Amino acid sequence: MDVTIYEVAKRAGVSIATVSRALRGTGPVAARTRERVLKAVEELNFTPSRLGVSLAEGRHAANGIVFPDLAGPYYTEVLLGYEEVASELGRSVVILSTKGRTKVNDLIKDLAGRVDGLLIFGHTVPEPLVAELVRLGVRLVFISREPLPGADTLRSENTASARALAEHLTGHGYERFAFLGAPLASQDDVDERWRGVRAALGGAIEAVPTRHYTVDCGFDAAKELLGHRTRPEAIICSDDEVALGALLAAEELGLDVPGDVAVTGWDDIMAARHARPALTTVRQPMRELGARAARALDELITGARATPRHLILSTELVVRSSCGYHPRAESP
Amino acid sequence: MDVTIYEVAKRAGVSIATVSRALRGTGPVAARTRERVLKAVEELNFTPSRLGVSLAEGRHAANGIVFPDLAGPYYTEVLLGYEEVASELGRSVVILSTKGRTKVNDLIKDLAGRVDGLLIFGHTVPEPLVAELVRLGVRLVFISREPLPGADTLRSENTASARALAEHLTGHGYERFAFLGAPLASQDDVDERWRGVRAALGGAIEAVPTRHYTVDCGFDAAKELLGHRTRPEAIICSDDEVALGALLAAEELGLDVPGDVAVTGWDDIMAARHARPALTTVRQPMRELGARAARALDELITGARATPRHLILSTELVVRSSCGYHPRAESP
DNA sequence: TTGTATGCGTTATCAA
DNA sequence: TTGATAACGCATACAA
């Protein structure tokens, strides 16, 4: 844009203060004056400079979001819910992917300087920097991370879901399990899932790590795993994408799912419903995580709430056909 | 952040001008002075205010992106390429989804005030507003839209790919076709695809519109279509998601693909490879579209290039198994 | 009801 | 080599 409040003021024959008041309704303005101002605004096609407003107001009216990668539906879904609510609250969303970036710290600091608050996934941001951000008073909300002081955290329930899933599978009569996508480093969500199923299944489950949580990695690891003479009866995957890979591997090996081997996922991404066979999984409310994060951030920023809050959203076991035969299979 | 350049200056015993110069290397600073400044910066943990910098520099160092929706892999992939290159060029990315939004114009104007340039998908933005943005000198790049004056446009080739696809299908011996996801309003890409296959296939193809370009809509429309007594031998879909829906519909109706009916998609999203049967489709370089858009915008913003450019990226026919039996079927 | 003047945090010009 | 100081575009306390 180009035209400033001064030109509007001059054209309307008033001061810039009056223009500002007329536009924001932040003080008394005579009806006739307001009209003149509005007319000038219209004629000049004036839009207040975001920079000027932000500088004067001392806020950006923008939220940031930091994720490792946007490939795959999980982060996208969360982002969707986040952006929707943020926009509703009058805030823009500035994104930052850390995948393959060097100098992540600088990028995040820059981002922090552009927004009023940050949504951060898991352990995307190095711990020392998190501490620094907290110290600087940056409003923070984390998704899928253990609680920490000075920031909100938002998670999905994992342990109980893991038990429910394990029990459903033992109900099918399975006795030998594998957990595909086992955590190498501690990735909070996956870690909880793994510990949950292991607690329920005891020694009957074997951990099989993947390099990443992607279809391809799931495919590779499952192919290796299923090639063994003594393959597991059921593969519990860390997430739906890994599970999708496992499904493909089974098919390539000529194995029937769930006849020869059962497979389950986690998250309930859209493709889970469309997979053949349809994937049994644990539904995680991804969009709601994003939406809640936006609201939580808003509370923190506006000061509606001062003390951090740590929320755990509940999940739901979604039984489809990849985990075994059911009397009445749920339709996709 | 909180500490300003004034505090640094005071601590270092110099003026703010010197601090600025020392930090940006934009003028002569004695070595000893620089050291004192840097030390003060370090001790106070000073980071220049983005707002101050932007106001003084007259630029945001940020790009915007406007898309209808982020659900589905297409926009996500483009966004990924866009953000990556933008970040490489030192620019943040501010996103805006128009899906389900009222007052889209205001949102877009606000966004335009936050960034140095905008990437816009197809006809997401109302034409009058586009004209206004052009008039205001906002740098614009469009993806998937016919060329217009005053902005860059970036597209994938559609017509020739359509012909190649049509010829491949007639090579299978099919004679009755349907185009699923036919354009209701003019949606540029889909429109070109439809016109392309119609030109190649003539009267042998029937247009079947869907409400949206989603799996669900594809499913519904395909179920209806395949329920008829005289169903087509091959369904050419507007895009992969619609095609995925068609695959599901066929399965639900007990129809074999490609035995009873052939199905093809467009885009080559990740799920296309993993579909059963694997989807024959036209690959579109989605990430590269995003990456190129970011570079084009940068050229426009820095002034490296003044005149708009209209680019068409080439596509590739990807033959898998959903379109018919091949002597040596390509592995997924 | 309106106007003046100041602050917001930089960069950059021009003197010194 | 350094320092005052004027932009940059707005909001707002305070005065009139």
TrEMBL record, chains A, B:
<dbReference type="Pfam" id="PF13377">
    <property type="entry name" value="Peripla_BP_3"/>
</dbReference>
<feature type="domain" description="HTH lacI-type">
    <location>
        <begin position="3"/>
        <end position="57"/>
    </location>
</feature>
<protein>
    <submittedName>
        <fullName>LacI family DNA-binding transcriptional regulator</fullName>
    </submittedName>
</protein>
<dbReference type="Pfam" id="PF00356">
    <property type="entry name" value="LacI"/>
</dbReference>
<keyword id="KW-0805">Transcription regulation</keyword>
<dbReference type="InterPro" id="IPR028082">
    <property type="entry name" value="Peripla_BP_I"/>
</dbReference>
<dbReference type="InterPro" id="IPR046335">
    <property type="entry name" value="LacI/GalR-like_sensor"/>
</dbReference>
<keyword id="KW-0238">DNA-binding</keyword>
<keyword id="KW-0804">Transcription</keyword>
<dbReference type="GO" id="GO:0003677">
    <property type="term" value="F:DNA binding"/>
</dbReference>
<dbReference type="InterPro" id="IPR000843">
    <property type="entry name" value="HTH_LacI"/>
</dbReference>
<dbReference type="InterPro" id="IPR010982">
    <property type="entry name" value="Lambda_DNA-bd_dom_sf"/>
</dbReference>
